[in-house]
Design brief:
The chain contains 18 helices and ten strands. The chain is an alpha+beta fold and 401 residues long. Strand 1 and strand 2 form a beta hairpin. The relative contact order is 0.17.
Length: 401
């Protein structure tokens, strides 16, 4: 079998069953080149390698850092400017400065204070759903719950939220470049207008707080504010939506795990194991080698792009015993569902909260929920980073009285 055929086999297998494809390459070729995100990328799949390199700044997030200094200024522009100013595309010191400005909004204490509102949103959404006819749980619940929460946190008007959900899906899924450019430009343009509106009439939401910080300390440009808002809107609901969707599929098939949702004290450990087992973000966003490197015994040349697979790492038997088994009693310490190091997911506590509330509210009110779609007929999103069905038809069944 030729290298090209092997690669084609891996990528096609990945789109169908990413966990199986990642497991296969972790066992046989744990550091290998693949054709992802429109170009050649080194895929790293062993836990020890992934964890170590998530924290190693020789893999930069800004692709220009891998270029010789004299070539960086001449680097061709790509997506609209806000896309290259997101935290996920920056390295220290810019990353340190920007992250410090929003970290206070995502502390564990602040997120815990949101629980009553998240519970209320979940109740409102579930109250609107029919009990005895098929309903798409993705469109009516899994996407809407986190979108409402992050929009309220940022201060995005309700009328615009559905369109934001559509645009962020385009930006995360694989799509033709013209469509990607159009979606990113549309989102950036809207947010530029929203920033201007918040500056003229501030409120108590996060976006106004970022503007105030900029005006008082001259620490954030409008471009950086727009980039931050774009990232938080996208990441603030996509990960949770994928997580809730895939968790529902897992829990419907596992009576023992599902029953734990009735015990509030058991819910956090169940959600933590689901995070490890499902890895809502299967692969971290691209990094770029700033010098010639060796990862897992494989030479990586300067300038090469590297993708660290948190999904493969979280099912590495060298780190977690029987990793393909969903075990709510497992010690999940050290899982990489939210990454590791300075780029660890800013909204990890929010995802946990929305997962705990969203799943418990759903199954405690509809314990007879069942998926009514044939698994072979589900259509999955084609994305390097997430794997979830586009729709999930369920019948909720009678509410628990």
């Amino acid at each position: 079998m030729t290298g090209s055929t092997q690669e084609d086999s891996f990528t096609e297998h990945y789109w169908r069953d990413p966990h199986a494809a990642l497991a296969g390459t972790r066992e046989t070729c744990p550091v290998r080149e693949v054709d992802f995100e429109g170009g050649r990328t080194w895929l790293v799949t062993r836990y020890a390698d992934v964890r170590a390199w998530l924290a190693d700044q020789r893999l930069a997030k800004d692709w220009r850092s891998s270029l010789p200094a004299e070539e960086r200024a001449a680097a061709p522009p790509g997506l609209p400017a806000p896309m290259s100013h997101m935290l996920t595309s920056l390295d220290p010191p810019e990353h340190t400065r920007l992250r410090g400005l929003v970290t206070q909004a995502f502390t564990a204490r602040r997120i815990a204070a949101l629980r009553p509102r998240v519970e209320a949103v979940a109740e409102e959404l579930l109250a609107e759903l029919p009990e005895d006819e098929p309903v798409d749980l993705v469109a009516r619940y899994a996407i809407v719950l986190p979108m409402v929460v992050i929009s309220e946190l940022l201060g995005v008007p309700e009328i615009d939220r559905e369109e934001f959900a559509r645009l962020s899906t385009v930006l995360i899924d694989e799509c033709p470049e013209p469509e990607l450019l159009a979606a990113s430009t549309q989102m950036a343009t809207y947010l530029e207008g929203l920033v201007a509106a918040k500056r003229a009439a501030p409120d108590d939401a996060l976006l106004s707080a970022l503007i105030t910080a900029s005006d008082e300390g001259d620490r954030l440009s409008d471009l950086e504010i727009v980039a931050m808002a774009m990232l938080l809107l996208m990441a603030g609901h996509e990960t949770t939506a994928v997580f809730i969707t895939n968790s529902v599929r897992a829990l419907v098939a596992d009576d023992s795990a599902r029953e734990r949702l009735a015990d509030p004290e058991a819910v956090p450990s169940l959600v933590e194991e689901l995070l490890r087992w499902l890895s809502p973000a299967l692969n971290a966003s691209l990094r770029f080698a700033t010098e010639d490197l060796e990862i897992g015994g494989v030479a990586i040349p300067r300038g090469a792009s590297v993708m660290l697979s948190t999904g493969a790492a979280n099912r590495d038997p060298e780190r977690f015993a029987d990793p393909d088994v969903l075990d709510p009693d497992r010690n999940t310490t050290g899982h990489l569902a939210f990454g590791y190091g300075i780029h660890r997911c800013l909204g990890a506590a929010l995802v946990r909260l929305e997962g705990e509330v969203g799943l418990a509210a759903l199954f405690n009110r509809f314990p007879e929920l069942r998926v009514v779609a044939d698994p072979d007929e589900l259509t999955f999103r084609r994305s390097v980073h997430v794997h979830a069905p586009r729709t999930l038809p369920v019948v909720l069944g009678p509410r628990k009285r």
